[in-house]
Amino acid sequence: MKAMKYSRQRESIKEFLEGRTDHPTADMIYMNIRKLYPNISLGTVYRNLSLLVSIGEISKIAGTDGAERFDPNTKPHYHFVCRECGCVQDISLEPVKALDGLAAEGFDGSIEGHTTLFYGTCSECKKKLLDKPIAL
Amino acid sequence: MKAMKYSRQRESIKEFLEGRTDHPTADMIYMNIRKLYPNISLGTVYRNLSLLVSIGEISKIAGTDGAERFDPNTKPHYHFVCRECGCVQDISLEPVKALDGLAAEGFDGSIEGHTTLFYGTCSECKKKLLDKPIAL
DNA sequence: ATAAAAACGATAATCACTATCGTTTTTATT
DNA sequence: AATAAAAACGATAGTGATTATCGTTTTTAT
Lengths: 136, 136
Hints:
The structure is a homodimer of 136-residue chains. Chain A is of the alpha+beta class and 136 residues long. Chain A has two domains: 73 residues, Winged helix-like DNA-binding domain superfamily/Winged helix DNA-binding domain (Arc Repressor Mutant, subunit A, Orthogonal Bundle); 62 residues, Ferric-uptake regulator, C-terminal dimerisarion domain (Dna Ligase, domain 1). Helices cover 35% and strands 20% of the residues of chain A. In chain A, the strands form two sheets. Chain A has a three-stranded mixed β-sheet. The longest helix of chain A has 13 residues. Chain A is flat, with a radius of gyration of 18 Å. The interface between A and B is large, with 37 and 37 residues. Strand 5 of chain A pairs antiparallel with strand 5 of chain B, so a sheet runs across the interface. Chain A binds a DNA duplex (30 and 30 nucleotides) through helix 1 and helix 3.
């Protein structure tokens, strides 16, 4: 009933995301795709991003302040967000499924999973903070 | 330099939140406070909520879709969000601080903590889903 | 080659939230 | 109690991310 048709815009969005680990926002993706398709619309970027998410080809990272971020890696994994610069990075820790069981104890609903966002200071910002003189 | 002055609007917001475990949004709080102060402004609600958060009297729950939610419980704890109705509930599991150490392994930034949001179906919605006939 | 419908670009609308600003309250000091 | 500085207010405009609308263009099965 709703067969998906090919679109080069969607293809280029997927290609742009492929291999990336910086989890860009819709706007960052828009800015970059515009170099290839100068009159692509921001709405088209949003439409295709949610389309790609809905068919499971990319995933969306929620919980980060401001804009949503997109990830070509669809396997569940944890993320880290830097409190200094706001950058988002992958955490190479296998999701701790045991947490779901622990959380389910004494809980009357059913728990299907969890999302975890670690926060702190990324290595880049740690360096910068060391170089910076102490503020008075 | 910036002494905080009393305000009944702020007081009533704090009182409204006190004892609640449904984690209302700013708008839900606004709707309720209006019964007591019919011409309170939504801006006043937002201003006081962030003020109360900044002095540590209440806390803000991020990561839930749409609007931010507020919690009178300032001790760090996990939350659950229902995928059916969107309600947010407390999880009575002590934050697993060991996760931070695990995540830090092989990570070059520094991890200060994490937020975790469990998802699934709340008990209310489980009941409703059982009563509902299977869709064709 | 045709035509149905999916996707497009442009743009308006929505939603949650923040900022501005003139007026009202609070509160420390007379 | 009167005063006055500043914090807080209500009304409202503005912002930023996202979604909806709509007439036109592309895709694709026939």
